[in-house]
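We emphasize that the prediction below concerns an isolated chain of 121 residues; any contacts that depend on oligomerization or on bound cofactors are therefore not represented. The input was used exactly as deposited, without trimming of termini.
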Amino acid sequence: MKRLALTLLLGLAACAQPQARPAPGRVAVPIPFPTLGLERVMEQDAATLVQLFGKPDADVREGTARKLQFASQICVLDAYLYPKGSGSEPQVSYLDAREPDGSAIDRASCVAALTRRDGGR
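Result of the prediction step, given as a token string:
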């Protein structure tokens, strides 16, 4: 009788679904996207960027997305604009900045440098 009960319990245990447990110390933590110093640019439309920086050096459109590139002797800024909803005007969702040789540069520093260039472009 004991043998039969043990066999039944082992059979039922084999049917149980294993519980997925996260590995200790491996919790996904979202990394905040720092926008300090980018307030004048983030969530702005293309017309505002042109008013701020002058005529873009590149204007690339793909579907509803748009990339505007502004360049100076100090840096190159790529502004990526996406619509927030159906039929809405694309707004800056992401910025990328680099020196003309491709080296890294702080995005806020690049925005500040581009706003100070004489006469826009």
